[in-house]
Write a sequence for this structure.
């Protein structure tokens, strides 16, 4: 029997709720502790979610000798700092997207992982789902012909006052929060990095982009276009257009257990159904495989770095009005 890995939640972030079920139902993991900046909030959270231990500071969680893996669900501007501290404390780390806000931070996180010998991966949950793996398999099989265009979108209406996504200093903005998904998806499908990018943004009173419209040009004449934003209803999409056929994926980033995609060849449409597991279980299993079986995490640190490089170039383009070469 494999040893159960003890996980600790670094903060009481809302997104934790997506991980609690996988962590408490998997036989490979035990959700042992939660930390918050205040002990009373950690205790209340631990009571609510039946987590055995509550720590009144992030430092206390990192000092807990029984914790093997830290789930870093802090606001974007704290990902690098606390991931590095956790690795230096001898913990493996699953860090939320976007991985960091600068390439220097990604490199420091990568160095900390190498020096500690611990596993570090970005929590892009959609990458592990059977739907994503199937789409990649279809594209790589050549069934669509030569890929021409990838279109993507991720929007939702954000009107929660004080949300971290509307705070510039915390790494807010729609391109960082949800634009990172279609950017990541397009890069995964193409399998190489964009050569040039161009972006437009609509900045709100908050000072962050509340809508973003981006384009990426890859080698071999492949183009990607996406939009992200906080000003439209919840909407996700990926469409992959090849010379022979196109594939429409209505729910690419948060697929449920019974996903459906549409393969269009001329005017013939074929529905393909894909059975998947619990969405957030994939990243938990992937961490366990990496820690216990030395398997390379599915989302490599080089992949995470390239995603941040693309986002930074898109942001620079939107700020300068210029096309940016990578
Ligand atoms: N993969 C996904 O599906 C997904 C979905 C949503 C969000 N995310 C990512 O998860 C991260 C957290 O997002 P969220 O919406 O869950 O955040 P949230 O609910 O606002 O929680 C963030 C937590 O960070 C802690 N924190 C530490 N310093 C803070 C500060 N200065 N201001 C505010 N909070 C601070 C707080 O915990 P304590 O008070 O307990 O210390 C807070 O509860 C982000 O990086 C986001 O991109 C991923």
């Amino acid at each position: 029997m494999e040893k159960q890995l003890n996980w600790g939640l670094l903060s009481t972030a809302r997104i934790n709720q997506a991980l609690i079920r996988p962590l408490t139902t998997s036989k490979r993991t035990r959700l042992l502790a939660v930390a918050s900046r205040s002990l009373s909030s950690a205790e209340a959270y631990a009571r609510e979610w039946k987590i055995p231990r509550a720590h009144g500071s992030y430092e206390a969680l990192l000092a807990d000798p029984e914790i093997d893996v830290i789930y870093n669900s802090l606001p974007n501007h704290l990902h690098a700092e606390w991931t590095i501290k956790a690795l230096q404390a001898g913990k493996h780390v699953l860090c939320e997207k976007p991985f960091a806000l600068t390439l220097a931070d990604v490199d420091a996180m990568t160095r900390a992982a190498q020096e500690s010998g611990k596993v570090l991966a970005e929590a892009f949950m959609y990458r592990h789902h059977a739907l994503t793996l199937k789409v990649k398999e279809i594209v790589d099989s050549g069934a669509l012909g030569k890929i021409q265009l990838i279109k993507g979108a991720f929007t939702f209406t954000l009107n929660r006052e004080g949300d971290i996504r509307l705070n510039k200093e915390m790494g807010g903005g729609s391109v960082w929060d949800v634009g990172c998904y279609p950017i990541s998806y397009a890069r995964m499908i193409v399998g190489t990095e964009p050569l040039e990018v161009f972006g437009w943004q609509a900045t709100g009173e908050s000072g962050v982009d509340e809508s973003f419209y981006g384009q990426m040009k890859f080698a071999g004449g492949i183009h990607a276009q996406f939009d992200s934003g906080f000003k439209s209803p919840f909407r996700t999409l990926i469409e992959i257009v090849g010379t022979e056929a196109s594939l429409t994926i209505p729910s690419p980033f948060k697929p449920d257990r019974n996903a459906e995609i549409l393969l269009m060849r001329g005017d013939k449409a074929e529905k393909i159904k894909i059975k998947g597991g619990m969405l957030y279980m994939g990243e938990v299993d992937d961490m366990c495989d990496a820690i216990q079986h030395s398997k390379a995490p599915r989302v490599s640190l080089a992949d995470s770095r390239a995603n941040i490089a693309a986002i930074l170039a898109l942001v620079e383009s939107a700020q300068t009005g210029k096309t940016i070469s990578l």
The longest strand covers residues 209-218. The two ends are 47 Å apart (CA to CA). The chain has two domains: 5-123, 126-280+308-325.
